[in-house]
Amino acid sequence: MAKDSSPSDEVVRVIRLRLKDKHAAILREKSFWANQVWNYCNELSYKVWQRERHFMSGFDFAKYTKGASKAGVPLHSQTIQAISEEFAVRRKQFKKVKLRWRVSKGSRRSLGWIPFKASALQYRNGQLKMSGIDAPLSLWDSYGLSQYALGAGSIAEDARGRWYINITVKVKKTVSTATKMIGIDLGLKEFAAFSDGKKEDCQQFYRLAEHRLAVAQRAKKKKLTRAIHAKIKNRRKDYQHKLSTALVEQSGAIFIGNVNASGLAKTTMAKSVLDAGWSQFRTMLNYKCIGAGVWFEEVNEAYSTQDCSVCKTRSGPKGLKDLGIREWTCKECGTHHDRDVNAARNILRRGRATLAVGIPVV
Ligand SMILES: [Zn+2]
Fold this sequence. Notes:
This protein is of the alpha+beta class. It has helices at 24-52, 58-65, 77-94, 203-218, 222-250, 268-292, 339-354; strands at residues 10-18, 113-116, 121-124, 127-130, 137-138, 150-157, 163-172, 180-186, 192-194, 199-200, 251-257, 295-299, 327-329, 336-338. It has 7 helices and 14 strands.
């Protein structure tokens, strides 16, 4: 598919699909071997560095891992290559001489992971055939895989022991005809406020889940704690996917504030959870906008809660001590503001100013 179009017409996306549970045993076994290959690369790379003071590339590893499949490692040679290449990339990225070992057993067990190359994967009659795994993999195909050219990726386990396949696919870029521009203020109280006055709240769920999490942690119920973590993560992702897709469908340009939650939230737990959620949401919006031809920009949001979006006077609530003030009236022009919607309107205003050409302002 889409092989005749030029690369600039395409964007790369990752599709994530749940594999059926019946494959868990074989995937766990393959993951065990993937860990052995990873650890072998880790050790070898470290030894070479100690001896020769240089680092091995993915290509260098190939010499050493060649023939491992034939010598009894039950992984396809392409998978072994994908693991060593991934190791080389990660080592470089983290600027370390040695990475963490991948552990196959016990409480510090690494979640299962098996990378693969594009050539190792084939889609046939609703199932995936993976080189090195005998039985075809059944999955919940909510994307309609048959319409994509499948690229490289990985099979990965989540904290609840569910297995997913992440596949990169190339998608043809479309050009959005929507003209609405929207500013987004990510918040502590609600998830987001928009320049058109709407708000989105999903935090209710976390409060409930956080309570259950605290109870489980106090009772030292490890399995339950993991399950709740995974559930929060999945629910959040699902929610953000729906919200970002809807926004991208309606908009010609999207602007979002660049601030992280760390400076705002009070407890360490809340801020890390929020930070992760916010950056994930920004990333999603970004790639969906690219794919749909929608303008996307992160905007400096300093003073966005203090400036009046109507008359631009800095007359609003200030800093942390005024965080509790949800609504205010501008002293200068008398406009009554919702704190977060006003911030979203300022973000939109600043975003518009960054547009060099083109999108009509509505
Ligand atoms: Zn004003």
